[in-house]
Amino acid sequence: MTKVLITGGAGFVGSSLALELKKNYPSYHIICLDNLKRKGSELNVARLTKSGIEFVHGDIRNKEDFDALPDVDFVLEASAEPSVLAGLNGGTPDYLMNTNLFGTVNCLNYAVRSKAAFIFLSTSRIYPIKSIETLNFDEKETRFALSDEQNLLGVSSKGIAENFPLDGARSLYGTTKLASELIIQEYNEFYGLKTLVNRCGVLTGPWQMGKVDQGVMVLWIAKHYFEKKLAYIGYDGSGKQTRDMLHVKDLYRLIDWQMHHMEDVNGETFNVGGGTEVSTSLQELTKICQEVTGKTIPIDKITENRPADIKLYVTDNSKVTERTGWEPEIGIKQIVEEITEWLQAHEEDLRSILS
C-alpha cells in the first residue's frame, strides 16, 4: 500500500490534494497533518475522515509530532504561514520562521527517516519585489501586462521563468520559502532524498478561506456574494494589478504526474501557475464576479501601495510544460462559477468566515 503524508493537510491546498488523491487512488493510505490554526480549516477535517483519509492534529514545528507517524512513501509539504504581510505589519516573524523554515527541516528529516520522496510547494514570492516592480510593462485599459523587451533574464510577455534573478528582498514569507528550497537541494545532494520544488503562483478554488493578504480570488468572490465592501488598494486605486490563477485541481493533475514520475523530475524546480491564459486583473475579476453572482458592491480606491505588493505576476510555464506535458485547463470564469456554487452550498458555515 502506498502511504502519503500531506502536511498542512486540513488547509485549502493540502485537503484538496488529499481528497483528489484518495478519489483517484482509493487504496492509498493518506495521512493529513495540520495544527488547525487557520480559521475554517476545521471544516475540512470531517471531509477528510468521511473520505477515508487519516487526520492527525499536529504541528510541523514540533519534531515530536512526527515520532508517532508511520513511515511513508511520499511527503507532500503543503503547510505554510502563507501571508506576504506576516512579520511586516507590526507582528513578530516567529511563527512564520518556525513554520516555513524550521518546520520544513522537520518534514525533511521525517522524509529521510521514511526514505520518502519529497514534493515541496513553494511560491512565486521567492522572486524579489524591486526586480518585479521595475520590469517593463504596458498599462492597458483594464490591466498591467508584461512587455517582451526586458532588461533581466527569465522574463517576457509570457511571464516569469525559473531563471529570473534572485538578488533582492522578497518579503519574510518569500525568504523562508526560498531558504527552504536551498535546504531541500542539500538534502537531495547529500542525503540522497528524492525531491521536487513547485513554485506556485496564486492558487484558488472552493474551500479556500480567502483573506486580504492571501486567497484574494475567493475573498473577492465572497465579498460580492455576501454583498460587502471591497477596495482597490495601491497603484492609484486602478484595480489593474494582475495575477495568474491556478485552480487547485489543475495543481493536483501536475502533482499526480510528478508523484508517479519522480525519477524523471528528481531535483527539479518548476514555476507553476495559470499563465497568461488564466490571468486576471482586479478590475476584470470584478466584472466577472458581477456577471456570475448578479451582485454589484461598492469598491473603494486606496491609492497608497501596501508593503511587499507588486503590480503584476504571471507564471511562464514553459519548463514544466516541456518536461511533463502539463498545462492548466480551468479558466477564470469557471473558477468564479465553482467558488460561487460552493458559497451557495455552504452559505451558513462560510458567512462568518468569509463575509
Q: Gap between N and C termini, in Å?
A: 42 Å
Helix/strand order: EHEHEHEHEHEEEEHEEHEEHHEEHEEHHH
Which overall shape is indicated by the principal axes computed on the Cα atoms? globular
Helix content: 25-40%
- Which topology of the largest domain does CATH recognise? Rossmann fold
How many domains would you count in the coordinates?
2
Per CATH, the class of the largest domain reads Alpha Beta
CATH second-level architecture of the largest domain? 3-Layer(aba) Sandwich
Low-confidence stretches: none
Note the beta-strand portion. 15-25%
Strand order of the largest sheet: 3-2-1-4-5-10-14
Largest sheet: 7 strands, parallel
Domain NAD-dependent epimerase/dehydratase: 4-273
InterPro entries: Epimerase_deHydtase, NAD(P)-bd_dom_sf
Family: Belongs to the NAD(P)-dependent epimerase/dehydratase family.
Protein name: 3-beta hydroxysteroid dehydrogenase
Structural notes for this entry:
Residues 4-273 form the NAD-dependent epimerase/dehydratase domain. It comes from Jiulongibacter sediminis. InterPro entries: Epimerase_deHydtase, NAD(P)-bd_dom_sf. Belongs to the NAD(P)-dependent epimerase/dehydratase family. This is 3-beta hydroxysteroid dehydrogenase. By secondary structure, the protein is of the alpha/beta class. It folds into 2 domains: 1-127 and 170-200, NAD(P)-binding Rossmann-like Domain (Rossmann fold, 3-Layer(aba) Sandwich); 128-160 and 205-244 and 275-316 and 325-355, Alpha-Beta Complex (UDP-galactose 4-epimerase, domain 1). It is 39% helix and 19% strand. The strands form 5 sheets. It has a 7-stranded parallel sheet with strand order 3-2-1-4-5-10-14, sandwiched between helices. Strands 11, 13, 15 and 17 form a 4-stranded mixed sheet that branches. A two-stranded antiparallel sheet has the order 6-7. Helix 4 (94-114) runs parallel beside helix 6 (172-190). It is globular. The N and C termini lie far apart (42 Å).
